[in-house]
Amino acid sequence: MGKRYYTVKEVAELTGRTPPTIYRWVNMGLLKAAKIHEEGTKGALLISEDDLIEFYRKNLTCRETFELEKKIELKEILKKAAQLPDHKAGKLLKLLSIVIFECK
Fold it and tell me: For residues 19 and 21, what is the distance between their CA atoms, to the nearest angstrom?
């Protein structure tokens, strides 16, 4: 599987910050981002999952880093569950709820 990339809006949602904060981190050189140019637009910024986790490890607490990694993992699990037949998705989500409850 290829590398995962997130938009500024997605990073803001994952981190609980606002898009202007994410842009500020990028402009300050704290968070790496790639500018994707499309015809007729100024381009969009994409941030790799690896760079986002590295930023968290360097700049935020261990707990915040752990929470971000778990959010990314949960997002991927939920995407997969949405593609499963209902009876299999239900089993997966039940297991997931047990894991989340035990981690609190």
Answer: 5
